[in-house]
Design brief:
With 491 residues, this protein is mainly α. The chain has 19 helices and no strands.
């Protein structure tokens, strides 16, 4: 497979053998995607009789949480504390499955919704951590093997999840599918997150670097719509219709990707996913209210092939530019959630129409196929995923270090300009790099109260009222220094 991101990851690396990070990421991906399967096959089916709208609300909330992650990574990366957020996600999923179990047993919509929202927040953070960890793998081949192996194995696991699982067992499995991956990847993702916290606000100032990925977001929306349609279409006992045929197709596609050495293999994988989705839509009218599952299998296989491509592209993006990764993950997965919601609504509408008017239900499926092909034909005939990743601005380790040195220089300049003491200047540097009061207290062996006093004094001298205002002031100082440097060089 072509490697559009030749440079090695620009992040701190573990001393562990290369196979261990890869195996940890593989296990995390399998369990992460299995959690979605458990939700669709058991949890949503159990709540369908008293809170059917809950799955659409939860999916929409998932999209909102991913957008929030993207904006925090862009505008307030200092909040991305790996330890604190991982602990919060662990608490959220634990509380969430307890609420889910109690809500489903008692047919209580509010408790069920609370559980779904807690699970959404935990899975969003896990997805971000996993993608960072995936981008830190030492070779492009290890990224490919983890993404492909995880997609194939998780797809097979989906077929093995029993419909009608007891609620307690499903909730316990759901918790494990979040908690175990968090434990597997947070240590791998923590060093890169420290770089993002320290330099992210300086490295990314606007959305211009994301322009080449707008077509990708639209593709995700279209494929996710097909995925949502496959989940809802011809459901049995309020659970998706599952066959093993899609797993075989995805496994074959993965082997093709592994042996493909061409420069456009990513685009070939995308073409395959599109053909599978189109075939699924075309078959759907002939399977209205049947249990054959050919359409569902084709749609799921197309989705899984595309998501295999998506994991690879996100990892390669992170290998080129670490600071773009979390915003990309947030926007891409938000588009996926919204598309899934839209497709599921159409799928449920098709099921309802099939009972009274099978012909009209078939028309619905044909319209979906036409819209899918029309959007792709009009907007993506000349789009290349390989080229889009290659256009991402490369940020190397020396540049990351240089960003950090710019922060230090700007803080020292502000310290002299505003009369900060040497200690206050040192604390200012750490705050601008994303460190918190507890870290500063430990570093300088001070009491936390003393550090708070120093922070209060330097805030007053700088005329700021929050850490974000402090970071904004530092960014403005760096930008002004860069402008002066360009002016002097051109004069």
């Amino acid at each position: 497979m072509a490697n559009p991101a030749a440079p090695a990851p620009a992040t701190p690396r573990s001393d562990a053998p290369a196979r261990w990070p890869a195996l940890r990421c593989l296990g995390a991906l399998i369990l992460l995607q299995a959690s979605g399967s458990i939700i669709n096959a058991t949890i949503y089916a159990s709540m369908a009789d008293f809170f059917a709208i809950g799955r659409e609300i939860a999916t929409f909330a998932n999209a909102g949480a991913f957008v929030l992650l993207a904006f925090v990574a862009l505008r307030r990366p200092s909040l991305l504390n790996a330890r604190a957020l991982t602990a919060s996600a662990s608490i959220a999923i634990t509380a969430g499955v307890m609420c889910l179990g109690a809500g489903i047993v008692a047919n209580n919509s509010l408790l069920t919704l609370a559980g779904l929202l807690c699970r959404a927040m935990a899975s969003v953070w896990l997805t971000g951590l996993f993608t960072i960890a995936l981008s830190t793998l030492p070779t492009s081949r290890s990224v490919l093997l983890v993404a492909g192996g995880g997609t194939v194995l998780s797809s097979a696991i989906f077929a093995l999840i029993p419909i009608g699982w007891p609620t307690e067992a499903a909730c316990a499995a759901l918790a494990l599918c979040i908690l175990v991956p968090l434990a597997l990847v947070w240590g791998l993702a923590e060093p890169p997150l420290a770089s993002i916290r320290q330099s992210g606000a300086t490295a990314l100032r606007d959305f211009k670097g994301f322009a080449s990925f707008v077509p990708l977001l639209l593709c995700v929306l279209l494929i996710a719509t097909a995925s949502g349609y496959a989940i809802a279409f011809n459901q049995q006992d309020n659970a998706p219709l599952v066959t093993l045929a899609s797993d075989v197709i995805v496994a074959v596609a993965f082997v093709m990707v592994v042996i493909d050495k061409s420069q456009k293999s990513e685009d070939r994988l995308f073409s395959l996913s599109v053909l599978l989705v189109v075939a699924g839509y075309l078959v759907a009218p002939y399977e209205i209210a049947s249990a054959e599952g050919t359409a569902n299998s084709l749609l799921r296989a197309g989705r899984d092939c595309f998501y295999l491509l998506l994991w690879i592209l996100l990892a390669f993006t992170g290998r080129r530019n670490l600071f773009m990764l979390l915003p990309m993950v947030g926007f891409v997965r938000a588009a996926s959630s919204l598309g899934t919601d839209a497709g599921a609504v159409v799928g449920h509408a098709t099921n309802q129409l099939a009972a009274g008017n099978p012909h009209l239900a078939g028309v619905f499926a044909s319209i979906m196929a036409f819209c899918f092909v029309a959007f792709l034909w009009l907007g993506f005939r000349h789009f290349s995923f390989t080229d889009a990743v290659s256009e991402v601005r490369l940020i190397t380790p020396p540049e990351i270090e240089q960003i950090g040195s710019h922060i230090d220089a700007a803080c020292r300049f502000l310290g002299k300009q505003h009369g900060l003491t040497p200690r206050e200047t040192e604390i200012l540097i750490l705050l601008a790099r994303g460190r918190d009061g507890k870290f500063i207290a430990e570093k300088y062996v001070l009491s936390y109260q003393t550090v708070k006093t120093h922070i209060k004094h330097l805030y007053a001298k700088l005329g700021v009222h929050s850490r974000q205002e402090l970071i904004n002031l530092t960014d403005q100082t760096i930008a002004s220094a860069a402008f002066r440097h360009r002016t002097e060089r051109n004069s």
